[in-house]
Amino acid sequence: MTHDVHIIGGGLAGSEAAWQIAEAGFRVKLSEMRGSGDMTPAHQTDGLAELVCSNSFRSDDADRNAVGLLHAEMRALGSIIMAQGDVHKVPAGSALAVDRDHFSAGVSAILLAHPNITVVRERVDVLPANGLTIVSTGPLTAPGLAESIGGATGAAALAFFDAIAPIVHHDSIDMSVAWMQSRWDKGETKDYINCAMNKEQYLAFHTGLMEGEKTEYKEWENVPYFEGCMPIEVMAARGVDTLRYGPMKPVGLDDPRTGRWPYAVVQLRQDNASGTLWNIVGFQTKLKHAEQVRLFRTIPGLENAEFARLGGLHRNTFIRSPELLDPTLRLKSRPHIRFAGQITGCEGYVESASIGLLAGRFAVAELRGETLAPPPVETALGALLHHITGAAEAETYQPMNVNFGLFPPISGRTKKADRKLLYTARAREALAGWIAA
User: Fold this and answer.
1) Phi-psi region of 434 (alpha: psi -120 to 50; beta: other; left: phi over 0)
2) How far apart, in whole angstroms, are the C-alpha atoms of residue 172 and residue 272?
3) Same domain, yes or no, for 135 and 187?
4) Are residues 203 and 95 in the same domain?
5) Per DSSP, what are the bridge partners of residue 269?
6) pLDDT score of 239 more than 70
């Protein structure tokens, strides 16, 4: 099949871009190297839109949370990623978490069956010289293509570390010690497994993190960590109580044995629909595997834990998007090429997919001979796009999740408690106007 747009990379951004373009009636060639004999250091399958790290799309609260607002905006624009996320969700309180295997299988089945999409299992090592192209190879771009991108941009890609959390078999968790509860009892059900620690246990665990043997990455020295996915031992090094104000915070969780908040809590979130696998929330790590098993089995309730996957760390790359891309994600030096997803420097599953959605819609407009204005900066989509393509200083540009700090401030004096509601109300009105236009 001849094609109108060539998409390189079948992750969340590439899958979303392909869907948007194909649904508009144009033909897509989607190149994905997994399944051709190549594999990245982090992926485990050849499925499209595979979730590599967490299984959570984070908060689904569209009234008070920026990522929840982004969810709502993507749903309004017919996102396949959000539609399949909703189909394959698993309990996670006020968050949207999915069965990662069923989710990927659902996206794959729909795209593979679409008459306007041809999926080709191949590794692309050189940027196409012509033809509308979307590069959505993500932060694990193959070396050959990364070199070609470097040649086209005139600047070497930046890099940062991203980490993976371990996954535990449910039947190995001691539920006579752990208990089910969502923080502050949010959501209709008790969606998290909680393992409480007293002060002595927490301090011993902290010492174990600090002293545990870690994997070294000497060839990647001076590569920064992404703040939103930082190894737990790196957080621990910032201070003895840092974890108690981060992934191990006990607030809003009542230990049924005492009726009080514990000193610290380790939470696990359901990772698949059948509830047989649970990931340890916020426990991304570069500890060596044997050290992880030893230390994590000191957590009350996990003394006999069996791990389906242990934590890991990989190097991610992204481009200086504010310097290199125009407001519609086109590479200024080669405007037939757009970039989408995490390679642009957005961070997070939903953020990656949302930039794929926009890249797809910009490509559709170009194919139609039309001009599509970027979404208003008052929306979550517009605020994230503005950050990527022009708001940040290129020299200090770092990956970022969507957050209200990217939005224009609310004018006038407002109560802090009302500010998030004002942001989301303003965003809904702005998005409705953009869609209507």
Assistant:
1) alpha
2) 16
3) no
4) no
5) 192, 279
6) yes
Do 170 and 143 have their domain in common? no
Determine the structural domain holding residue 183 and report its residue range: 164-315
**Other CB atoms within 10 Å distance of the CB of residue 57:** 27
The CA angle 116-121-122, to the nearest 5 degrees, is: 115
Q: Other C-beta atoms within 10 Å of 189: how many?
A: 12
pLDDT of residue 396: 62
Boundary-marking domain end, from 315, 349, 379 = 315
DSSP string, 77-119: TT-HHHHHHHHTEE--TTEEEE-HHHHHHHHHHHHHH-TTEEE
Q: Which pLDDT belongs to residue 205? A: 96
Same domain, residue pair 305 and 424: no
Structural domain total, the chain: 2
Same domain as 230, residue 368: no
Same domain, 177 and 237: yes
In the DSSP assignment, the letter for residue 405 is G
- Is 173 in contact with 266 (CB distance < 8 Å)? no
User: Residue 177 and residue 6: Cα distance in Å, rounded?
Assistant: 53
Task: Give the pLDDT score at 320.
Answer: 86
Measure the CA–CA gap between 144 and 389, rounded to whole angstroms: 25
Q: Domain containing 388 — which CATH number?
A: 3.50.50.60
- State residue 220's pLDDT score: 47
**Final residue of a structural domain among 315, 334, 363:** 315
Query: Domain with 267 in it: what CATH number?
Result: 2.40.30.260
* pLDDT in the model for residue 259: 94
Mean pLDDT of the chain: 89
Quickly list DSSP for 242-264: GGGGTTT--TT--BTTTTB--SE
Q: Are strands 334-339 and 167-169 parallel, antiparallel or unpaired?
A: unpaired
pLDDT per residue over 23-67, tens digit each?
Answer: 999 999 999 988 766 655 555 677 899 998 789 999 999 999 999
Strand pairing category for 179-180 and 167-169: unpaired
Structure tokens at 222: 């001076």
Per-residue pLDDT reduced to its tens digit, 135-179: 999 777 777 887 888 888 876 666 676 677 888 999 899 999 999
Task: Output the pLDDT for position 1.
Answer: 66
Q: Average pLDDT for residues 410-429, to the nearest whole number? A: 89
Residue 109 has pLDDT above 60, yes or no: yes
CB 163 within 8 A of CB 285: yes
Residue 195: what are its φ and ψ, rounded to 5°? -120, 110
Residue 140's SS3 state is helix
